[in-house]
């Protein structure tokens, strides 16, 4: 008969956490979550056949009891009905203008949620205590989670009514059950889920303890110790039986040994708290892929081969997903209105630290992936000379092109490494830790020197070499390698969270290569012979150069000294000579040409006119002459 029983067990806390996070409660949007719950209820009623009918006459839906339950969806219908009532109550509570009617409606919706949760609790309790002859059953974990949900709503109702003793006793029982679930969790996700629900109601416990006159209300553990077992048993009859059944079912003692849990995370000696279930779930995956990557490195070291870049891509993909989850949680927490309380400030600080740590982890493995690509690319080009002072590549044009292409790819990879290092140095957790900041800046200086060194080699090995540019790059590389030595070889503070381990011999080897390449580039620069252009001498055929002045400036002829008077006389004589020469060039002046007939007539007419008009006024004076 036991094998024919239908198991209606489900994970209520996980369901609530996902639904609330996705549909608005993470941002404090109670209206959106209420509408989602209404849509969910409508779909569940259609599936279970508990609708109100489509006729004009109202038809009451069938009651959900121990006799009508056939599927797990009946229990989920009660859950989302209670969630809709809670969302409506919280939406009214969040209004700024709280009139008496709004307060009454808020309490009314809260009481409706309590009624639905009580109905759910009674049904699950009946199913858990059913005999083998019953067709349905639930496990102790489902009963515990439903009890936690019921106690949460009941404690909130008591808190709104200022019944501090009842609220504190319900919250204490709830916290006891969540602690057992955290201890018996099979993985870190379930443990973080229980921790998340514990943290959600801790402020109510502190406030109730404060109202009851406890001097140290902030001490949650002390408050829990003050609540007697009799008070808890009175708040929830059958608590002892429930806790024993839950411990036996989860196997707390055995689970501690075989638990798939997240290792403790520390950054520069500071513990990174991952109390959110979503972050813990994705960080467990990160831990798994990092362990596989470490095993792959060991197998490749032993000569067994490995997948290589696929492992790195998988690690970066999971880390990118973790960064997205952490960033989303941080943004949602900052955008929510509950950022003024002490708990909210601590939560924001923990989320910010977790987000920055995940970013640092992502950049670290991206840098290591790029360096592995550099090593693979360099080893795949045997034509590249190992001696940096060798500028000739044997094998013809094809080998030269291969070497140039390889060096170009290596330089681009070093550019990506430098970009990741600059992003890492800009993180606040890196700036606050002196040891971490020194290590990142030292690596940035070292790989900047390496990039300049490879770029200088590219200039020297190119078919059209540019030794001057190579010398400038090598001077910058020498400055960066000295800075890297000051950070990495003799640091002022011990280095922490090292991304890439560099030995002093590697730094000295790079420094020696830079110095030798610099000397070789300078020798090649001074040994260059610059050929004259093809048409260099053509200008001498058309331009008269001042040869005497050029010889004087070259020191081949002495400059003639002249006084000022002599210079003036020389200039004057030169001008006179120019005039005389111009006159000589003209030759003899031509005679005046003879007058023509027309000219003679004009002359004769002019003579006659002159005789007829004598004196002034047309000849009136002296007419008698």
Walk me through this protein's architecture:
By secondary structure, the chain is an all-alpha fold. The protein has 3 domains: 1-138, Signal recognition particle, SRP68 subunit, RNA-binding domain (Hyaluronidase domain-like), CATH 1.10.3450; 139-255, no CATH class; 291-526, no CATH class. The protein is 68% helix and 1% strand. It has helices at residues 12-22, 30-48, 72-93, 100-128, 140-160, 164-183, 188-211, 220-226, 229-235, 239-250, 252-258, 277-301, 309-335, 342-379, 397-425, 428-432, 434-461, 467-488, 504-526, 547-554, 564-586, 597-612, and strands at residues 6-7, 136-137, 266-267, 270-271. The strands form 2 sheets. The protein has a two-stranded parallel sheet. Strands 3-4 form a two-stranded antiparallel sheet. Helix 2 packs antiparallel against helix 3 (72-93), helix 5 packs antiparallel against helix 6 (164-183) and helix 17 (434-461) runs parallel beside helix 19 (504-526). The longest helix is centred in the middle third of the chain and has 38 residues, at 342-379. The radius of gyration is 49 Å and the shape is elongated. The model is unreliable at 606-612 (pLDDT under 50).
> Domains counted in the coordinates: how many?
3
Number of helices: 22
* Structural class computed from helices and strand pairing: mainly alpha
The helix content, as a percent range, equals: 55-70%
Number of strands: 4
Content of β-strand: under 5%
Give the distance, in angstroms, between the N- and C-terminal Cα atoms: 179 Å
Mean pLDDT: 82
Which blocks of ≥5 consecutive residues have pLDDT under 50?
Answer: 606-612
Largest sheet geometry: 2 strands, parallel
Order of helices and strands: EHHHHEHHHHHHHEEHHHHHHHHHHH
Rounded to an integer in angstroms, the radius of gyration calculated over CA atoms is 49 Å
Overall spatial form: elongated
Strand order of the largest sheet: 1-2
InterPro entries: SRP68, SRP68-RBD, SRP68_N_sf
Protein name: Signal recognition particle subunit SRP68
Main location: cytoplasm
Pfam family, one: SRP68
